[in-house]
From TrEMBL:
It comes from the Eukaryota. InterPro entries: 6-hairpin_glycosidase_sf (IPR008928), 6hp_glycosidase-like_sf (IPR012341), Bac_rhamnosid6H (IPR035396), Bac_rhamnosid_C (IPR035398). GO terms for molecular function: hydrolase activity, acting on glycosyl bonds. It comes from Penicillium cataractarum. This is Six-hairpin glycosidase-like protein. Residues 765-838 form the Alpha-L-rhamnosidase C-terminal domain. Residues 1-21 form the signal peptide.
């Protein structure tokens, strides 16, 4: 896993005391990567501050203090300083009178003030806790470990809700993510301005929080000889039988505590959640958790819900439609049989032990109907998962058609169940959207973050690994799922789950081809490319067939991601944003096709890309208004159109300049927001879109706009207040003061991590021009405002050490040491002459050979 580091230590020996002789340069010596200790066994992480009561005040020296709970209501706040992840662990010293504790988790501090923490996260069953509040029964002294991984949090609170006395010597997490020091990473960047040093470091830490090695994210179900033991979580769905109509689902269930839960006719892993939610509560015998919300969940009741869960969470609505009180007690620790009849006319009838307990028509409530504009989710099935803090066994599941034919029968005692329901421990390298939320492996999010991986940690397994995961889920049409579970899947699960997200966000398929190209260029891994090539061709064919509008040659798929309204008209040809995704994808494919010797494919991709380039420039340019319109003959544009036009270099420089001027109309303190048609949560700045824009501005040498954007969007993320996590945020409020989706915001979110790449590739200025950096540029952005920057950029041949800054005369001085065999082109960030060693009066570009330190001074 850490091959890179070993390579580097050899290389640093060869380089020797690099930078030490540079007493006349403004930057300090560039450090070498530190040795990474591989831990033996699990790593525990502990808070840096422990405080009685609910407060974000840091208490110096308190981290080792015991937590002493003397009476019900006593609460402690634990601050880990920045995000951590894992299973909570409690070293219990005293436990008198059956203590119960309520434990809450959140990234931003205000989550501790809410009953739900910063959750629940009911979007995916992503091999972690759905709920951000957990209740534990502490029955004895010694170590107690929670069952679920909590995906990322800086803050934790622990409250005694029942019992006499509890002393926890220490509380922490058994880490589920890589805790190795960032100093051991091969990549590195620092600046005289520590804001930039800190922003760069968000990248490698976010990688640790969002990218996981095989076997690290543990299963959320337990299979026993008595059936599947399922703790409270988002119900997980089978894909073995789909779209049943006029049938009965029956199963046996034993409530271990609180209640049991299931769904029927609900979309499989899709962007909708419309089938009914059922939660059946028990009689709550004595010893039940003292904090049960009996308003939401009265005892002996069937609660009917719809949507994502029984609670609302930002963009994931949840509904409680009805409650059916039972006239008898629902006992725990005994087996019950539940039958749910779904005749297919929106009515449902539920029986408990042969007694009818509910009958209703789900559409009669008039809530949570499927959103007709969101595609996918054509496959529906049933799912199991109780509510928060409940736990139940499920066994002998049957689905029987009204004709009497049994179409599904499962005792739920075999380990295959975990794969069938998508809840098995991950077996591949995978990357999540975020540590805590949307724990799906999303394809397009890697467009930015895969480069962050290569520039900072060089852990290519977090690019080729998730790529192999994606290819392993490709279906015959060539489609790759734009999001997928971390769990291993069987063949039929793959087919159903992949096609269920067709044709959502087709541009991600093109983006994925860019990811592979970006990885290839930075790793020089030809083997990977050659192996993946046939599947890449299939993917591109699928994406073209799904999205190319033959009439206009523009991207015409419904529901693209990059600036496309989700509510847009199906099949309408769309503007520059999505079309550029296609163009760059095709052009990268053409380059890779030439490498693998597939010249016909190269010519085809190149020709198509050119047609689409011309289409944008001729069909969308509005000469009077001075912008590329969002639709043919339409008006309006958004920042993604501008970003993508710059990235692909569409049109003349004059047209680009005129388009860039429109940015000012979209400006807010934290960056830029949508124009006239853009669909996203209103009132937020999206770090993913800002990443595209930052790169577009950098690639066209618009240094001031780029640096202003860097400061506006990302500097707030390194501000060390109670919302600091050490990770990149998904969104930021338009005023730049808080995470944009509030507590829902992923605050270790990898998609908007471009600044790490920007600082290495444009501020420091080291960019590959041929695979493996055999040729590269040393081309810092002119006029980037700082006194100095320095860093290391990993290449497959070893590290490039580089630096620049201003000397006492105010002239730019630069230094670079590249591994032997690599050849750099120095592109001066100033217009005048310069010296390289003893050669004076040079101008224009200069070739730098690897193997020696080269010092360049502006004259
Ligand atoms: C905590 O105390 C130590 C020792 O007194 C001191 O060096 C350190 O700066 C303090 N840290 C903070 C965050 O106040
Ligand atoms: C129902 O449960 C409640 C609470 O545990 C208990 O007090 C009551 O006796 C039970 N009723 C029957 C009929 O078992
Ligand atoms: C907690 O443990 C006590 C003692 O073993 C037991 O009586 C009680 O039922 C347990 N409660 C839950 C909710 O598991
Ligand atoms: C969630 O929000 C919707 C819309 O505001 C509302 O109708 C619904 O009742 C809310 N659900 C819950 C569980 O409060
Ligand atoms: C379901 O099947 C039954 C028995 O075959 C039939 O009577 C009934 O009409 C069907 N219901 C629907 C909604 O098709
Ligand atoms: C229900 O499932 C069990 C185990 O999967 C099976 O043995 C049984 O025959 C099924 N019952 C019916 C009525 O289909
Ligand atoms: C190239 O990619 C393959 C995965 O296809 C991987 O196994 C191998 O380790 C990679 N090679 C390098 C040098 O990173
Ligand atoms: C951004 O989009 C939202 C929702 O469509 C809209 O309400 C808002 O006015 C737009 N903002 C700008 C600056 O166009
Ligand atoms: C460092 O950068 C931040 C963000 O751009 C800026 O606010 C600050 O003034 C800079 N500090 C110095 C010393 O230049
Ligand atoms: C922190 O984040 C929360 C939630 O988004 C926000 O309400 C608050 O204003 C932010 N800032 C501070 C200092 O708490
Ligand atoms: C210097 O190199 C850059 C980057 O490759 C290139 O764009 C530019 O044309 C070169 N300048 C000259 C004078 O060759």
């Amino acid at each position: 896993m850490r091959v890179g580091v070993e390579l580097i230590s050899c290389l640093s020996l060869a380089i020797g005391a690099l930078g030490a002789a540079q007493s006349n340069v403004p930057w300090p010596a560039i450090p070498k990567p530190q040795h990474a200790d591989s831990p033996n066994g699990p790593v525990h992480v502990y808070p840096s501050s422990v405080r009685k009561g609910l407060s974000s005040d840091f208490v110096n020296g308190s981290s080792g203090n015991a937590l002493v709970f003397q009476s019900v209501g006593d609460t402690y706040t634990l601050d880990y300083g920045s995000d951590v992840a894992g299973k909570p662990i409690f070293h219990v010293q005293v436990a008198e009178g059956n203590p119960q504790i309520e434990v809450k988790y959140t990234e931003a501090f205000p989550g501790l003030l809410k009953p739900e923490g910063d959750g629940p996260f009911a979007f995916a069953n992503g091999l972690a806790a759905t709920f951000r509040v957990e209740t534990f029964n502490i029955t004895k002294t010694g170590d107690f470990t929670g069952y679920f991984i909590q995906g990322s949090q800086r803050w934790q609170s622990i409250k005694l809700i029942s019992g006499k006395k509890l002393v926890i010597k220490r509380a922490g997490f058994v880490s589920s993510v890589d805790q190795s020091s960032l100093n051991s990473m091969p990549g590195y960047f620092a600046s005289s301005n520590s804001t930039y040093t800190d922003i760069w470091a968000l990248g490698p830490r976010t990688q640790q929080l969002a990218c996981y090695p095989p076997e690290s994210q543990s299963s959320t179900w337990e299979i026993t000889s008595k059936g599947a033991y399922i703790r409270g979580q988002k119900p997980a769905t089978t894909a073995r039988v789909v779209n049943l109509s006029n049938y009965t689902l029956s199963f046996e269930t034993l409530i271990d505590r609180g209640g049991t839960g299931w769904r029927v006719d609900t979309e499989i892993d899709a962007i909708q959640a419309t089938g009914p939610i059922f939660v059946l509560t028990s009689e709550y015998p004595s010893g039940s958790f003292a904090n049960i919300d009996t308003t939401l969940l009265p005892p002996n009741t069937l609660i009917l819900g719809r949507g994502w869960s029984l609670q609302n969470q930002t963009s994931l609505p949840g509904y409680v439609l009805d409650k059916f009180p039972l006239k008898f007690n629902v006992t725990e620790k005994t087996w019950h049989t539940i039958r749910t009849e779904s005749p297919g006319d929106d009515t449902y009838t539920v029986y408990l032990d042969d007694q009818r307990i509910a009958h209703f028509n789900i559409s009669s409530y008039g809530l949570a109907d499927p959103n007709p504009y969101i595609p996918g989710g054509v496959y529906k099935s049933f799912a199991f998962g109780p509510w928060q803090d409940q736990a139940a066994y499920v066994r002998n599941v049957n689905a029987t058609l009204s004709t009497g034919e049994n179409v599904y029968s499962n005792p739920m005692t075999s380990n295959d169940v975990l794969i069938e329901y998508g809840v098995q421990t991950n077996s591949q390298y995978t990357c999540s959207d975020s540590g805590k939320r949307d724990r799906f492996s999303w394809l397009g999010d890697r467009l930015i973050s895969a480069r962050t991986v290569m520039v900072a940690s060089q852990q290519g397994e977090y690019v080729w690994g998730p790529a192999e995961e994606a290819f392993s889920r490709q279906v015959g049409s060539g489609q790759i799922p734009i999001n997928t579970l971390f769990s291993p899947l069987d063949a039929e699960g793959t087919l159903i789950r992949t096609t269920n997200v067709d044709p959502l966000i087709v541009d991600y398929e093109f983006d994925f081809m860019q990811v592979i190209y970006d990885y290839w260029v930075r790793s020089g891994n030809d083997t990977f490319l050659e192996k993946a090539w046939p599947r890449m061709v299939m993917t591109t064919s699928y994406a073209l067939a799904r999205s190319l509008d033959q009439k206009t040659q523009l991207f015409g798929a419904p529901y693209g991601s990059a600036g496309t309204p989700l509510s847009g008209e199906k099949g309408q040809a769309l503007g520059p944003a999505n079309t550029v995704s296609m163009i760059i994808g095709l052009e990268r494919m053409a380059e890779m096709a030439r490498f693998v010797g597939d010249d016909d494919a190269a010519a085809f991709y190149q020709t198509q890309a050119q047609l689409s380039r011309t289409a944008i420039d001729t069909l969308l340019w509005d000469e009077t208004a001075g912008y590329y319109a969002a639709t043919v003959g339409g008006t309006g544009y958004d920042l993604m159109d501008i970003a993508q036009v710059l990235l692909a270099g569409i049109g003349s420089e004059q047209r680009q300049a005129s388009f860039v001027e429109k940015l000012s109309t979209l400006q807010v303190p934290a960056g830029y927001i949508n124009g006239t048609r853009f669909f996203d949560t209103p009132g937020v700045v999206d770090a993913y879109y800002m990443s595209f824009l930052l790169e577009g501005l950098a690639a066209t040498k618009r240094t001031k706009l780029a640096q202003d954007l860097l400061d506006a969007t990302w500097a707030p993320m390194v501000h060390r207040d109670r919302n600091y996590t050490g990770g990149y945020w998904e969104y930021i409020s338009t005023d730049g003061t808080y995470p944009g989706l509030d507590l829902f915001t992923g605050m270790s979110h990898f998609w908007g991590s471009y600044p790490t790449v920007f600082l290495s590739e444009y501020a420091l200025g080291i960019r590959p021009t041929k695979p493996g950096y055999t040729t590269f540029l040393f081309a810092p952005l002119p006029d980037f405002k700082t006194e100095w920057v320095h860093g290391r950029v990993p290449t497959p041949s070893g590290l490039i050490y580089a630096a620049w800054g201003y000397n006492k005369q105010g002239k730019v001085v630069l230094e670079i040491t590249a591994p032997a065999g690599l050849q750099g082109t120095f592109v001066p960030p100033f217009s005048g002459r310069y010296s390289v060693g003893s050669q004076q009066g040079l101008s224009g570009n200069h070739t730098i050979a690897g193997g020696a330190t080269v010092v360049i001074v502006e004259e």
